[in-house]
Amino acid sequence: MKKALITLLMAIGVMTIQAEEYTYLTFETTDGAKASVQASSTTLSISGSTLTAGNKTFTLTNLSKMYFSTTDETTTDIKSVHGEATKDLLSATEIYNLRGQRIKREEATSGAYIIKTPRGNYKIIVR
């Protein structure tokens, strides 16, 4: 009996040490986007169908999984554009600056923009 208790206590101690290696709590939504928050001193709260973790909020029905990780896995959804997608950039129907203000194509100086095209939305950098 003592042997089993000592073994159990040792196993719990090892699990605690291993959990301290994970510095982030990562949430993955049903669309594949990921958001990470610092695991230490983060509070979780649920209000209705909303989960709040630190400064991030999630709708519970949109969460697919939650796990601890060693790195910040927050996705930015920024991708390189190649081939057919470059034609979409030329057919932009709406251009917005990072303040959310709609601008004309001629007003796009150096900087980052969000453009809407018939096939999707893109984040671009004009140099």
Radius of gyration: 22 Å
What is the count of β-strands?
Answer: 10
Strand order within the widest beta sheet: 8-7-9-10
- Tell me the β content: 35-45%
Number of domains as seen in the coordinates: 2
Quaternary structure of the protein: single chain
What features would you describe in this structure?
It is a single chain. The protein has 127 residues and is α+β, with helices and mostly antiparallel strands. The protein has two domains: 2-69, Roll (SH3 type barrels), CATH 2.30.30; 84-126, no CATH class. It is built from two helices and ten strands; from the N terminus they run αββββββαββββ. The protein has helices at residues 2-19, 84-90, and strands spanning 24-29, 34-38, 44-47, 50-53, 56-59, 63-69, 94-97, 102-103, 111-117, 120-126. The strands form three sheets. It has a four-stranded antiparallel beta sheet, with no helix packed on it. A three-stranded antiparallel beta sheet has the order 2-1-6, with no helix packed on it. A three-stranded antiparallel beta sheet has the order 3-4-5, with no helix packed on it. Strand 1 and strand 2 form a beta hairpin. 4% of the residues are buried. The model has no long low-confidence stretch (mean pLDDT 77).
Keywords:
SH3 type barrels, alpha+beta, 127 residues, three-stranded antiparallel β-sheet, four-stranded antiparallel β-sheet, 2 domains
In short:
The chain is an alpha+beta fold and 127 residues long. 20% of the residues lie in helices and 39% in strands. The strands form three sheets. The protein has a four-stranded antiparallel sheet with strand order 8-7-9-10, with no helix packed on it.
